[in-house]
Amino acid sequence: MLSRQIADRLRSYETPFYLYDINLLRQTLESVTALSSKYGFKLHYAIKANYDPHILSVIREYGLGADCASGNEVRCAIEAGFSPDGIVYAGVGKKDSEIRYAISQGIFSINCESLQELEVIDRTARELGKVQDIALRINPDIDPKTNSCIDTGQADSKFGISYEEVMANAALIKSYDNIRIRGMHLHIGSQIRELHVFEYLCDKVNAIVDCLSGLGFNFDFVDLGGGLGVNYDIPENEPVPNFASVFTIVNQYLNVSGREVHFEFGRSLVAQCGELITRVLFRKDTATGRKLVVVDASMTELIRPALYGAYHSIENITPREEGKDRYTIVGTACESTDVFNQSLTLPVTSRGDLLSIKSAGAYGMSMASRYNLHDLPGAVYSDEFDR
Ligand SMILES: *Cc1c(COP(=O)(O)O)cnc(C)c1O
């Protein structure tokens, strides 16, 4: 990891801050774009994973479109230079003003998540004198074998329209004049590490596309969403995620001839290029003998451990003492779930040491808050050092 190599230079920065390895980001983008072009797959970056302006500008260089989850994300993507004709916009609760904005910008597709939303898009497009391209976000009822907090494609989930509802209302759905149904969209969850889940997804998509084609739906594209997981346990073993395997599986199992295939990757593009660098404030022991390391970051900079028990590998990048010990790493926020690791073996750690919390490039900064009136963390980019 980058932080270990440049630890001495990092000492002078105000902590906590995100450190981004732009070379690794570029390697990741080179890998995903080279592989996707082999199969003719189209890529969108899910900007909710990280909308840091410098990260966005690098991603844009590689020609990806943007996947957005709110009107402000659509605006952010356009302002960062993403062309509207590569922007897709999903979200279970789009406000009228957001729908109006997206239509007025002429984005590639609104990924529609309910029958009522179709009606609102149609009415709004008519008012604006436009016809909007949309995709139906279908809930495929697939268990993505990931943390249940971040699965999105099971029958009881709030996301998407059920396949049964589309079947039952096919005539109504096709009846709107100011909507063009161009695609079918699915996104079954995040941090998917069991890649055979993508095989099931392809099987389902084949069946759904077949049935809906029989009902007169004519899709130009199928958007399989994102969800590819990264190696949080030992990031050094897999700095660039295994895009090749997903693409090979989809190429082999998906049978939607003549239709474009789109992906919306978030986490897998940016997680490994980011580290959260934090300074040890205090070492103290609890009455029960637990050895606490209090760091100056907290759930306000990186909420994933507190929010859904996510694991991040942590390293002391400036150890000064011999030996090892076992610690609980806690943050500064006034919440007892503000724990980065309950039980972690590190080199003997003391006040002033810098710790790196790794694989923090996705859903880190983008979920940061100002709870306890903490300042938002800064960002340091590796290409600042190269210049
Ligand atoms: C969050 C999200 C993504 C990106 O998911 P990752 O797991 O970060 O790849 C893609 N599509 C939709 C609709 C999403 O909500």
Topology diagram in text:
Elements: H1 2-5, H2 7-10, E1 17-20, H3 22-39, E2 42-46, H4 53-61, E3 65-68, H5 71-79, E4 87-89, H6 96-105, E5 109-112, H7 115-127, E6 132-139, E7 161-162, H8 163-168, H9 170-174, E8 179-185, H10 196-214, E9 221-223, H11 243-253, E10 260-265, H12 267-270, E11 274-285, E12 291-295, H13 304-308, E13 314-316, E14 324-330, E15 339-347, E16 354-357, E17 378-381, H14 382-386
Parallel strand pairs: 1-17, 2-3, 2-10, 3-4, 4-5, 5-6, 6-7, 6-8, 8-9, 9-10, 12-14
Antiparallel strand pairs: 1-11, 11-12, 11-16, 13-16, 14-15
The protein binds pyridoxal-5'-phosphate.
Pyridoxal-5'-phosphate is lined by residues 46, 48-49, 67, 69, 90, 187, 190, 225-228, 264-268.
Overall pLDDT score: 95
- What is the CA-based Rg, rounded? 22 Å
Q: What amount of the residues lies in strands?
A: 15-25%
What is bound: which ligands? pyridoxal-5'-phosphate
Characterize the largest beta sheet: strand count, sense, and whether it forms a barrel: 8 strands, mixed
Strand elements, count: 17
Number of helices: 14
Low-confidence stretches: none
Could you tell me how far the N terminus lies from the C terminus, measured between alpha carbons in angstroms?
20 Å
Q: Helical content, roughly?
A: 25-40%
Overall 3D geometry? elongated
Task: Decide which structural class fits the backbone.
Answer: alpha/beta
